[in-house]
Design a protein that fits this description.
InterPro entries: NUDIX_hydrolase-like_dom_sf, NUDIX_hydrolase_dom. The strands form 3 sheets. A 5-stranded mixed beta sheet has the order 7-4-9-8-11, with helices on both faces. The protein has a 3-stranded antiparallel beta sheet with strand order 1-2-3, with no helix packed on it. It has a 3-stranded antiparallel beta sheet with strand order 6-5-10. The two termini are 33 Å apart. The protein contains 3 helices and 11 strands, in the order E-E-E-E-E-E-E-H-E-E-E-H-H-E. The protein has 208 residues and is an alpha+beta fold. Helix 2 crosses helix 3.
Length: 208
């Protein structure tokens, strides 16, 4: 038996959008269960996101610390952002986020992993990239605002992030998944075996 997620869509008898926000919305679907019963499911509709685990020449990961109001925590994270434009190339979006949040560019890119962070309540899909061969971007820094104006930037050894995740000290999904996935890749076939940066992404199809 192949352990692989497969697309499937159960019958929806009715759907509504009771709330629409700036970037996301809430949808209510009446879904037909295998036994014929109809169950109502509420979930957040999300455009999708990209994140970047950027590793420097000293095996340190570029991380940011940002306040997240819903969980009332200041979290250590990796650079990430929304896919604001339908069909947007995720690599271009990831490169933009790395520049805007860290004022850094990378010469080498791979797809590290693709995840659904909260599939029970949100349709968000996230592509996490691995980037290395880093250098600072010349010119003025991108102007940040709101929570991002209070961000901290650091470079932390990968092993320290893995330890923090396993110790329950680091909680951001993209950081946790990215750090553990990169550690597994380095212990296995190496980063050269990762998918190319332009690998297809069925969850969020994009233009080349």
């Amino acid at each position: 038996m192949a352990i692989k997620d497969t697309p499937e869509e159960w019958q929806v008898n009715a759907t509504a959008v009771p709330f629409t926000g700036n970037k996301t919305s809430v949808r209510t679907d009446d879904v037909v269960m295998p036994d014929g019963n109809v169950v109502r499911r509420d979930y957040q509709v999300h455009p999708g996101s990209v994140a970047v685990l950027a590793l420097d020449e000293n095996d340190r990961v570029l991380v940011i610390r940002q306040y997240r109001h819903p969980v009332r925590h200041r979290l250590w994270e990796i650079p990430a952002g929304l896919l604001d434009v339908p069909g947007e190339n995720p690599l271009s979006a990831a490169q933009r986020e790395l520049y805007e949040e860290a004022h850094v560019k990378a010469e080498e890119w791979h797809v590290l992993t693709d995840v659904y962070p909260t599939p029970g309540g949100c349709d968000e899909a996230v592509r996490i990239f691995f980037a290395r061969d880093l250098s600072d971007v010349e010119g003025e820094r991108f102007e940040v605002e709101e929570e991002e104006a209070d961000m901290e930037l650091a470079r932390v050894p990968l092993r320290d992030l893995v330890r923090g995740v396993l110790a329950g000290e680091l909680h951001n999904t993209c950081l946790a998944v990215g750090a553990l996935a990169l550690s597994a890749a380095l212990a296995g076939d190496g980063v050269e075996a990762l998918r190319p940066a332009d690998a297809p992404w069925a969850a969020r199809p994009f233009e080349a």
